[in-house]
Amino acid sequence: MAETSLNTDYYSQIDRIVNYVKRTRQGGFLFYSCNPPSGIVQINRDIVDRAQIKNIIISEIFLSIGDTNNDNFLFNIREILKNKPRAVIIANIDNTVSNSKNQFIKDINNVRDILLSYNTPFLMGMSEKNISKFANLASDLFSRRDRGVIRFKSIPAPSQITPHTQALETREDLQITPLTDIQLKIQLLEEQLKKAESQDYDLKQITGDIVVELLGWYIKASLLDKAHSLFSKYKNDFNLEDHLKSIKTAAEYYLSTAQWDKAIELYLKSRKIYNKMGDKKSLAEVLVKLGQLNENKNDLSASIQFFTESKQLYEELGDIKALAHILNNLGALEFKRKRWDNAQDYFQKSLDIFEKSGDIFNQNITLENIKRAKEKPSETKKDFRHYEPLTRNAAAVDENKKEEALQMVGGIATPASMYLQLGQIAQQNRDFEEAKRNYLEALKISQEFNDLYSQASTYHQLGRVAEEERDFQEAKRDYHESLKIKQEFNDSYSQSSTYHQLGGVALEERDLGEAKRNYLEALKISQEFNDLYSQASTYHQLGMLSQEEKDYPAALQFYTLALPIYMQYNDTIKAENTIKNLLILMITWFQSTGSENHITEAIDRLEISGELKNLLKEMLKSGIEV
């Protein structure tokens, strides 16, 4: 499908989507957006209703936080496909993308071929901002020929609703109103709430009997404005001490607004209650939620702890299916921690269960996980704002096959991401002129399509090229342009890498004060997101900066903070570099005070492992050039 122009009216756009579903006999991905994004709920409803008139079944799937890993997501998709719909709307994908901090975009990109194999189109309504993120972060999916984008210029006000739609909104006979079950339940609960409020019922009773349930349905339908208004009004009347339904619904509200710590606090309360009740099944489910939430916070140790507790309960309950998925999740967490043997062990146990149950689909997924764990990828960090430089399309690209590579992902209509990948390949080969040409082409395409968000990554890469060429003024201009866009989109996480690069430029220019300001800003963000690896890189740079300032105690502290993290992530190259810098620092420092004979004693006092202390002593003994 080609992109539509903005001047097509609302209902012809709805019909266009329905006709696309009616015509197609294969899988594909159709994105649509509107302003404001809250109008997506009405668009989804009108698509379903208009399709129903034409005897076309389009099903909606609502994702919760637990559905955003590939196993759960694909399981739920397969369940809804049992009804044989002609298309599936991922109804609350806009929130899912935000709540998963964009991880869901990468997850759905990883399973795109599986989704296509179902021969069912997937419809996804979201904000312009998130469509740009898909183009940026899921380039393999977004560059397909079976991908379409439709933009709704506006959503009709009630007075503009067509007679058909108006009848759906006002009909008294709810038995024949073709609303979805969720919309019907919301409508009935809203009427009950309005009646209860008009009769001055006790607020706590209203909350317990109506508000809690209505809030849950608002969240499920992604009506976050209504959810926020309702929760703000009745928050003080929620029983968050011992009323399980209130606790769980409030926790879901905090999930929907990405307030992880508040959600965790409430799930821990429900955990305590279920444990006291002896309800092992509900307790296991809550533990899974806590595992997923802590994974979102990148607290992998806590996540593993909660998943392990849930594993033990599912073993006691004999729930083999749930156990297999928990084992797979534990394998994925160990994979993130670069503990390859542990990951393989969990994946293998998961595979054994899937084989016994005859689950071919999950067997294939788990076999792929085992293969990846055996490969022990050397990459120690993935910045979710950057592309993997060698995709299956870009890997084979050389100077003579550029056009051929572009055709592989859609010719001249390819999203800017392809040029960005070509630029990265050239940059890796230190062909900076070629890298710059490709980045500028990517920037041009992004600008033509008003894709402001994608421009941020391209400006960042242009800054890196300029930095490599030691054109520091140009590098700063590009980095600041990237930073400006990221701030406009309130994209805090990826600002960290740009602040870090600006710190490096300032350090090269000997502007130590400016370098420190940028490094500390980068550190603040990476700490906020619990991104340990990025913290290590910034700690190391702050160590170098402090060493330049001859603030030796500060430099020592920063190096010793960076070193254990590099060791944890098995990044031996950066760990060795930090060890060398640390030793040079100590020699320089102690020589300046005439205390070089006490370096060994000082090493023993460092807050690092005994293994690292012995390594420093061996290097000191063998001699190192300062």
Q: Helices and strands in order, then pairings?
A:
Blueprint: H1 10-23, E1 28-34, H2 40-53, E2 58-61, H3 70-81, E3 87-90, H4 93-99, H5 103-110, H6 112-117, E4 121-125, H7 128-137, H8 139-142, E5 147-152, H9 163-170, H10 181-198, H11 203-220, H12 224-234, H13 244-256, H14 260-277, H15 280-296, H16 300-317, H17 320-336, H18 340-357, H19 360-375, H20 402-408, H21 416-428, H22 432-448, H23 452-468, H24 472-488, H25 492-508, H26 512-528, H27 532-548, H28 552-568, H29 572-592, H30 599-605, H31 610-622
Parallel strand pairs: 1-4, 1-5, 2-3, 3-4
Helix pairs in contact: 1-2, 7-23, 10-11, 11-12, 11-13, 13-14, 14-15, 15-16, 16-17, 17-18, 18-19, 21-22, 21-23, 22-23, 23-24, 24-25, 25-26, 25-27, 26-27, 27-28, 28-29
Task: Describe what this molecule looks like in 3D.
The chain is mainly alpha-helical. It is built from 31 helices and 5 strands. It has a 5-stranded parallel β-sheet, with helices on both faces. Strand 2 (58-61), helix 3 and strand 3 form a beta-alpha-beta unit. Helix 13 packs antiparallel against helix 14 (260-277) and helix 16 packs antiparallel against helix 17. The longest helix is centred in the C-terminal third of the chain and has 21 residues, at 572-592. It is globular. Residues 1-8, 158-180 and 379-415 have low confidence and may be disordered.
Category from helices, strands and their pairing: mainly alpha
The CATH architecture term of the domain at 10-168 is 3-Layer(aba) Sandwich
Cα Rg: 27 Å
Strand content: under 5%
Q: Write out the strand line-up for the largest beta sheet, numbering strands in chain order.
A: 2-3-4-1-5
N-to-C span = 63 Å
Largest sheet: 5 strands, parallel
Q: How many helices does DSSP assign? A: 31
